């Protein structure tokens, strides 16, 4: 589902070039009830999104897109969304409780399976300078009390930044990826990388809040 004309045209062209003639691409808003009904009829079992990031007060909150995506999925399906880290850090202590209330709504209807903290300069080649995290939800299964969400610190991915942007110049990514994927699949707690913690909407949803500090990487200036 794509709202912008030029992006929609590019998506259609890209799928055509790759020989995919069965893609269900919709021009319009993902919040449009008519489009959502059409999507639900297809019984999707995976949600994968990079929602528009807020730049104006009037813009929709990023977590509203996540809730909308989960609403379209079959029960027990997974939704993977990359969102600003601010979505993970909001608590009831914040003056503006909008994001906190969305976190509450998410846990009331879905399970927070995992959160991965992304590299600070992940979007270095774009206009977005936001620090992000990836949230993984299990659709339409209320977050169980005491359920341990998997948190991982995935900032050191081996990529280096040069004039052309971030890339795997030193061929480190494949090995790092294997380790990270294996740790997540097995729910392994790896020192300085991953940890499992029960959380509520009032907690910070990021690995940095729970992992021990690696003092070996701290030096005097």
Task: Give me the secondary-structure topology.
Elements: H1 5-17, H2 33-41, E1 46-49, H3 62-72, E2 78-84, H4 86-89, H5 98-109, E3 111-117, E4 132-138, E5 148-153, E6 160-162, E7 165-167, H6 173-185, E8 194-198
Percentage beta strand: 15-25%
Helix content range of the residues, please? 25-40%
* Average pLDDT number: 93
Strand line-up of the largest beta sheet: 1-2-4-3-5-8
Query: Strand count, sense and closure of the main sheet?
Result: 6 strands, mixed
Q: How far is the first residue's CA from the last residue's CA?
A: 49 Å
- Count of discrete alpha- or pi-helical segments spanning 4 or more residues: 6
Account of the 3D structure:
The protein has 221 residues and is α/β, with parallel strands linked by helices. The chain has six helices and eight strands; from the N terminus they run H-H-E-H-E-H-H-E-E-E-E-E-H-E. It has helices at 5-17, 33-41, 62-72, 86-89, 98-109, 173-185; strands at residues 46-49, 78-84, 111-117, 132-138, 148-153, 160-162, 165-167, 194-198. It has a six-stranded mixed sheet with strand order 1-2-4-3-5-8. It has a two-stranded antiparallel sheet with strand order 6-7. Strand 1, helix 3 and strand 2 form a beta-alpha-beta unit. The radius of gyration is 19 Å and the shape is globular.
Keywords:
single chain, 221 residues, alpha/beta, 6-stranded mixed β-sheet, 28% helix
């Amino acid at each position: 589902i794509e709202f912008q004309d030029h992006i929609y045209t590019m998506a259609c062209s890209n799928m055509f070039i790759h020989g995919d003639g069965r893609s269900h691409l919709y021009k319009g808003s993902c919040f449009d009830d008519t489009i959502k009904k059409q999507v639900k009829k297809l019984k999707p079992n995976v949600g994968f999104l990079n929602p528009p990031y807020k730049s104006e007060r009037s813009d929709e909150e990023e977590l509203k897109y996540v809730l909308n995506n989960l609403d379209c999925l079959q029960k027990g399906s997974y939704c993977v969304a990359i969102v600003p880290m601010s979505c993970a850090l909001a608590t009831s202590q914040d003056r503006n409780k909008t994001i906190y209330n969305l976190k509450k709504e998410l846990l009331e209807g879905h399970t927070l399976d995992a959160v991965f903290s992304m590299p600070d300069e992940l979007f270095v080649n774009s206009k977005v300078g936001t620090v992000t995290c990836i949230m993984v939800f299990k659709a339409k299964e209320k977050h169980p009390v005491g359920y341990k969400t998997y948190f991982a610190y995935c900032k050191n991915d081996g990529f280096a930044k040069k004039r052309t942007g971030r890339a795997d110049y030193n061929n480190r990514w494949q090995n790092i990826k294997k380790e990270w994927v294996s740790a997540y699949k097995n729910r392994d707690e790896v020192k300085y990388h991953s940890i499992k913690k029960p959380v509520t909407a009032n907690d910070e949803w990021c690995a940095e809040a729970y992992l021990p500090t690696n003092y070996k990487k701290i030096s005097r200036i």
